[in-house]
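> forwarded from #structure-qc
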């Protein structure tokens, strides 16, 4: 991920997941809470796994006994560092399962139009298919656009809510 995209994601994904997750939690307390916790943990882990830091890069280089020029081996080695590997796994499982559960909670709780809640959940199923099973980056990008549409509808619901 490009550094500016990482920064943009950090500034938008975490607050967005919290806001939409809290809406889901109000609509379906158990399911929304589980989805919020999983999605939050997943997205927070993304940044740790991507930005592991120079200490982990040095440790990875030392493990393979190579110079930084051998990037492939270096990246494999960094991924094998338990906290980095765990953060990567938590990112994958957390953001996918979390957003699916948030979408279902929003749908079941009728917090927003059913099509928009389903868009959030379905986007992650499509993301798994087109990012992992049959990699087609353009279609994966469209899956994330579907999630963004669902989040935009959720934002409009939140904006229209009376102040508590």
């Amino acid at each position: 991920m490009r550094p500016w995209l990482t920064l943009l994601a950090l500034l938008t994904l975490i607050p967005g997941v919290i806001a939409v997750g809290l809406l889901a939690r109000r609509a379906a307390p158990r399911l929304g809470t589980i989805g919020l916790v999983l999605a939050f943990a997943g997205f927070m882990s993304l940044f740790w796994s991507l930005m592991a830091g120079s200490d982990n890069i040095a440790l990875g280089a030392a493990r393979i006994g190579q110079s930084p020029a051998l990037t492939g081996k270096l990246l494999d080695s960094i991924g094998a560092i338990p906290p980095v590997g765990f953060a990567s796994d938590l990112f994958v499982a957390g953001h996918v399962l979390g957003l699916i559960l948030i979408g279902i909670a929003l749908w079941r709780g009728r917090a927003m139009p059913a099509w928009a809640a389903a868009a959030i959940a379905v986007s992650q199923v499509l993301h798994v298919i087109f990012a992992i099973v049959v990699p087609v980056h353009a279609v994966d990008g469209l899956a994330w656009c579907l999630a963004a549409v669902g989040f935009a509808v959720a934002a409009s619901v939140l904006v229209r809510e009376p102040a508590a």
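QC bot note: The chain has seven helices and no strands. Residues 12 and 56 are 26 Å apart (CA to CA).
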